[in-house]
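Q: How do we represent a protein-ligand complex in a form that can be generated token by token?
A: Start from the inputs.
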Amino acid sequence: MDTIYMDNNATTQVDPAVFEAMKPFLTELYGNPSSVHGFGGQIGVEIRHAREHVAELLGCDPSEIIFTSCGSESDNTAIRSALNAQPEKHHIITSNVEHPAILSLCKYLEKKDGYEVTYLTVDDHGRLDPNDLREAIREDTAIVSIMWANNETGNLYPIEELASIAREKGVVFHTDAVQAVGKIPIDLGKIPVDMLSLSGHKLHAPKGVGALFVRKKLPFRPLLIGGHQEGSRRAGTENTSGIIALGKACQLASENMDEERSRVRALRDRLESTLVSRIPDAKINGDPENRLPNTSNISFGYVEGEAILLMMDQLGICASSGSACTSGSLEPSHVLRAMDVPFTFAHGSIRFSLSRFNTDQEVDFVLDMLPDIIKNLRKLSPFSADKEAPACTKAFSE
Ligand code: PLP
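Then emit the structure tokens for the protein with pyridoxal-5'-phosphate bound:
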């Protein structure tokens, strides 16, 4: 049975061209780029090229790119750098739909280090109101961190407007663009973002490499202290093969973005609109106007998302659900809760996230299989449009 992989917001397949580019750096080109000898030095040159490819995709200067190990490291570095560079400021602004790489760090900083955090809220389509940011900024705000694209719904946030508000008020603006980079055009020459995080494994490079954009002249404090790698901004011997892979992945994204975006969007739209027309009580979660082209988050009312996933898995279809099984209880995701998605719909939410490798035939297969899966699960479900959720389970939605 072939795998039909529609979980690309979780991670992506390494592109064969990316693998070819990185391979020599895992075998014969193993030198340390910091070495004085030519064997290491030649790797330094390749890292420079990789940095140029990342910068080109983002519309920034190569010197503004710091390679890291992942999106989470980039996020942690950005927030901590802003706080450490401005020790007199104790306030952070973020949103309540961020990835845990930001949310858990903010909760930690609140609890352990006494920072105050404002969590901007979203409406029932998951949209933020930029005026809320304007009102939340204070004299002691050290950093605003708002994601560019939401990993669960694909919602795109008005980063240009949000970053401009922060810039106007003299506050550092960071964006977690882990889900946006490689999927939509980004031009940091035009958008006044101060720091931006990205992660290789979301754009067809391998796991274990990421990058942080830090605008020139922004005061910066490294997270990892040690050697002088990355211009003394991130200690640790470079993950050379990962960096080369990320450079190649960014080059491919720059070259193919327009064509790929419209192809993936067409697949996603066909998948989504046909599912919603064939399956009763199916609703799309997110902002219909401003979404990533590859992501579709659909709630199938009155069924359990985890059960849908298991049934799809038996057919080789990989997707994600909007609930996570933690300590025996199925909690709907914080993103769907922030959007006030009703209990019986939040629990039946499935995220399909496509990539350049998906095909029309795969979409056809899912369209053929899913209506019956939902129909059969609904026969077993204690819930329905005319059966109320029992009180004990209703409590989850509060
Ligand atoms: N931010 C967002 C929006 C993500 O979707 C993810 C990963 O899912 C991360 C950050 C973390 O990235 P990484 O897995 O590279 O640490």
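The mean pLDDT is 94. The CA atoms of residues 360 and 396 lie 38 Å apart.
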